[in-house]
Structures are given as C-alpha cells and as structure tokens.
Design a protein that fits this description.
Number of domains: 1
Strand order of the largest sheet: 1-2-3-4-5
Number of helices: 2
Largest sheet: 5 strands, antiparallel
Radius of gyration: 16 Å
Amino acid sequence: MTMKPPQSGKIGYTRKEFGAIFQLYSQNVYKGLFKDFSFLEIKGKYYISFREEAGKTPLITIEKRRLSAERVLFVATTPAQKSEIIEIARSEKIDPFIRQLSGKIEILRNAKKTDSGNYSQNSTR
C-alpha cells in the first residue's frame, strides 16, 4: 500500500506556468502598460501582481488556488471603483487562462490609451 504525503497548504507556480505569466507581463512592459511586478505569499497562497508604476495599486493580480490534490484554478483580478475587486479571468489550465487574461489586458490597454491623451504604445522605450 502506497501512502501519499500530506497535501501542503502552500501552492506555487510550475516553471511552465510562471514562464507563461511572465511572458505576458514582458509583452505588456514592451507595450508600455506595466513597469513593475511583485510576488506575495499570504498563508500559503502565492500572488503575482502587475503594476503601472512601483508602489501603485496593481492593475492585475494573479492567484493560483488549489481545488484538490490534482486540480488548481488560476484567477486574475483587477481593482474597480469603490475599492472593489473584479475577477477578469479564470481557468483550471494555464493556456486558456493566459488567452483570457491577454484579451482582458488588451481591453485595459486600449482604455488607458483612450483615457490618457499622451499614453504611447512604447512609452518605456
């Protein structure tokens, strides 16, 4: 009889997951939307946040949640008015999650271009 080790309360990102998330972040650094990111661990949950500027409220926060020993859920949120948080993407698989999130970031980037007359696509270059 084989015994499984007890499930740890901590959940991290695999190399593939982190690579996909960081690639999306990097693409949007190049396009001028993000300039800073951070990692945060709270009670065994790991968050990755993308910011316009260091020290500002994150535009996007990604969390990986454990659903069971074999299942996880990726969730992305963004701040809304009145200190609310809106979920903008969710999936149990990293590839569909990245596709969803990429589309939402495109909408966010276009809204920022419209709101800010001097926002340029390559403002960081």
